[in-house]
Amino acid sequence: MNRSSYFKFTSNPSETAMNISLCIGLVMLGVKWWAYLITGSVVIFSDALESVVHILAVAFAWFALRVSQRPPDKDHHFGHDKISFVSAGVEGALIAIAAIAIVVTAVQRLISEPIIQNLSTGIFITAGAGMVNAALGFYLLRVGRKQRQILIEANGKHVLTDAWTSAGAVLGLTIAWWSGLHWLDPLIAIVFAANIIREGVSLVSTSVNGLMDKSNEILELQARTLLNEFCARNNCNFHRLRLRESAARVHIDFHITMSDDTPIVHAHSIATLAEDFLKKNMDPTIEVFSHIEPNSLPDDHA
Q1: CA pair distance 35, 24, nearest whole angstrom
Q2: Geometric angle at alpha carbon 131, from 127 and 137, rounded to 5°
Q3: Residue 115 banded pLDDT, cuts 50, 70, 90
Q4: pTM over 0.70
Q5: Are 227 and 241 spatial neighbours (Cβ–Cβ below 8 Å)?
Q6: Pick the residue with more confidence: 3 or 126?
C-alpha cells in the first residue's frame, strides 16, 4: 500500500469511523484540559488524562486499520489482520497506565488539602464532553460490530468508558460543589480509575486471546451444527474442525470423510457443497477449506 493512501479521503465505513474518532478526540482533549486548568479537580484531571491516552490509542488504531486492510503478500500469507489485536492490546495497556496515574494523583490530593474552583463551569464543560463521547462511542461500536473490526469496537468501548467517566465526574463534582466536601473529588477519581483498569484488562485479554487464536465458541458451535446437518443429508462425516478469527476475517477448516469407493470428482463436489453451505448459513466472507479422506483411513493418519 502506498504511504500516500493513508491520507486519502475514503468511503470505507471503518476508515471513516476512525477519522471521525481521531478528530473528535482531539477536540475533546483540548476541552477537558481547559476544564481541568480552570478547576484543579482530580476527577476532571482523570477525565482529561484518559483523553490523552485515547488520542494515542486512536492514532495507533488509525494506522493499524490501514495496515490490516493490506492484501496478503510473500511475507504475510494470511494478510495483516492480526495487527488489530495488537492495537486493542496497546489501547488496553495505555488505559491501565492512565488509571494508575489517576490513582497516584488522587492519593496525593487526599493527603494534601484539595483546592477546587470554578466548579459550576467545570461541571458544564465535562457534561458536554461526556454527551459527545457517548454518541461517538455508540457509533463506533455499531460500525465495529457491523464491519467485524475489533480495533474499532475496542475504540468504541474506550470512548464509552470515557463518557461514563465524564458522567461520574459530573455527579461527583455536583455533590462536592453542593456539600462543600472537596475531599470527595480525589476519592471519586479513585473509583473511576478502578473502572478504567477493569476496561483496560478486558481489552488486553481480548488482544491476547486473538493473538493466541482462541476459538470463538459461538461460531464453532454454529459451524459444527451446520456440518452435522449437511453430513446427515449427504452420507458423509467430518472431524478436525478448526476455527480462528483475525479481526474481520474468520477461517474454518475441517476434514470430510466419505466411503472408499466414492469417485474423486463426486467427493470433491460434496466437499465444495459443504464449504458453500457454511458460507451461505454463516457469512459469505468467511474462508472455508476442507480436506477429503476415505472412511477407512484411521484418525491418527488423517
Answers
A1: 17
A2: 135
A3: low
A4: no
A5: yes
A6: 126
Residue (of 296, 292, 17, 277) closest to 146 by Cα position = 17
Contacts of 234 (CB under 8 A, 6+ apart): 270, 273, 274
Please state, in angstroms and as integers, the Cα–Cα distance from residue 180 to each residue in 116, 214, 259, following that order: 10, 51, 82
206's CB contacts (< 8 A; 6+ apart) are 85, 88, 92, 150, 154
- What is the set of domains in the chain, with CATH numbers? 3-211 (1.20.1510.10), 217-301 (3.30.70.1350)
Residue labelled with grid coordinates 471513516: 16
Rounded to 10 deg, the angle between the 184-211 and 150-179 helix axes is: 170
- What distance in Å separates the CA atoms of residue 54 and residue 137, rounded to the nearest whole number? 12
Segments of 93-248 assigned E as strands: 237-246
